[in-house]
Amino acid sequence: MTFSLPLPAQTAQEEFLRHIFVRDQMAEWSKHPLIMEKADGVLYWDIHGKRYLDGIAGIYTVAVGHNNRRVIDAIRQQLDVLHFSPPMHGTNPVAVQLANLLAEVSPPGLSAVKFECGGSEVNEAAIKLARQYHRLTGNPGKYKVLSRYLSWHGSTMGALAASGLKGRKTVNEPLPGGFVKVFPPTCFRCPFGKQYPSCDITCATLVDSVIEMEDPSTVAAIMVEPIGHTGGIIDPPEEYLPLLRKICDKHNILLIFDEVITGFGRTGQMFAAQTFGVTPDVICTGKGMSGGFVPLSAMICQQSIADTFWGPIEENPGFVEGHTWEGGPVACAVGIAMIREILDHDLLGNCRRQGARLRAGYEALAKKYPVIGDIRGKGLFQSIEFCKNVATKEQFPAKPGFGVRVGRRALEHGLLCRFDPHWIALGPALNVTAEQIDEMLAVLDRSMGEILNEGA
């Protein structure tokens, strides 16, 4: 038997696409398949040679740009020494080094690390940590996890159960029990019909009431994204996260920050916890930690929590959680190189500077086109929400959706952005330049103008 592989351009033919799943509906996607062949910096080229600006860092993952030589060299050097270590028997020096480095750059007290391979895994680990921690500390009835509607914590069943997107949940139900949802802090469209700041931050204070109704002795954790993504970059009011911290302290509940997207510089600090000045009990991070080079994520928890899992094996089994690829030496070498690249080149500062430029560009577009109702986010993680009538906040029809039309047109013009029916987001690499931000905004400007001229 002989095998032949299709040439790059041939991979767009339907006979070859039949053998792979992608995230979109296959029949629709295969009509105009997007297949990338190479990348460098903040640029992609597809199999036809077309150039694209990577306005979302792959998917908020390629934090230091494509083809970063420092990270590639770290991979090559590690491959020559040790590419895999036995996870059931211990770890390796590179994993220990990365864990210590993470302890240095994380908020104070967060200094114990569990490595995983992706966002879903690491959020699953945090859920297990919360339940096992309370069991070991004499509160075995604490098992429920409070999370938010419009959130996204991952595709595995526990992380999916914690998520709040009906379109991704319903097709997989029934899901595991023990998860309770509350409304997110969507100030522009307050679910309680209130206005900030006279609202008294109902979205946070109501969490305390929900916990009381559920019975605090049954609640293990609150899991939130500091800035939610899938609801349109849900940037909370400044009082929101401090209030959650107080509520958790009051009821002996762990506060878990899902920083799979916001971690590693996305908001202008290493973690969004530092941007907001709130220290959780657990940070779950991934995406930018690996730069898109290899699968890598980490759960970083308070040392006092980790200490709970030390003890006589007859009484304490330790943290019962494990995966084949956790703490792999090649992945951890990437993590070390990524952190050093961010720090050595002040990419946190560049994120803040270019984030301010992006915000100014959004504001200029809002003055030019009277369909931008809200601008949200921080650093290089910002979105605009579209309104048919800004004064009344009336939305465009959901299908096909103004945001989808603009996003698809931007793609035709060579810009990858994150788009939904009612909003669009940009989140390029942390080393993006001012000129590249301006080019992305120019494409967005052109695309919006064209769609409006065609009739929104």
Detailed description of the structure:
The chain folds into two domains: 34-67 and 347-454, Alpha-Beta Complex (Aspartate Aminotransferase, domain 1), CATH 3.90.1150; 70-344, Type I PLP-dependent aspartate aminotransferase-like (Major domain) (Aspartate Aminotransferase, domain 2), CATH 3.40.640. The strands form three sheets. Strands 4-10-9-8-7-5-6 form a seven-stranded mixed beta sheet, sandwiched between helices. The protein has a four-stranded mixed beta sheet with strand order 1-2-3-13. Strands 11-12-15-14 form a four-stranded antiparallel beta sheet, covered by helices on one side. The mean pLDDT is 94. α9 runs parallel beside α10 (240-251). β1 (36-40) and β2 (43-46) form a beta hairpin. It is an alpha/beta fold. The chain is built from 16 helices and 15 strands. 47% of the residues are buried.
- Give the tally of structural domains: 2
The strands making up the biggest β-sheet line up spatially as 4-10-9-8-7-5-6
User: What would the average pLDDT be, to the nearest integer?
Assistant: 94
Rounded to an integer in angstroms, the radius of gyration calculated over CA atoms is: 22 Å
Q: Strand tally, please? A: 15
CATH topological fold name of the largest domain: Aspartate Aminotransferase, domain 2
Return the CATH architecture of the largest domain: 3-Layer(aba) Sandwich
By DSSP (H or I, 4+ residues per run), the number of helices equals 16
Structural class designation:
alpha/beta
Morphology call: globular
Into which percent range does the helicity of residues fall?
25-40%
At the fourth level of CATH, the homologous superfamily of the largest domain is Type I PLP-dependent aspartate aminotransferase-like (Major domain)
* Most strands sheet: 7 strands, mixed
Oligomeric composition of the shown chains: single chain
Distance between the termini: 55 Å
Low-confidence parts lasting 5 or more residues at pLDDT below 50? none
What proportion strand?
15-25%
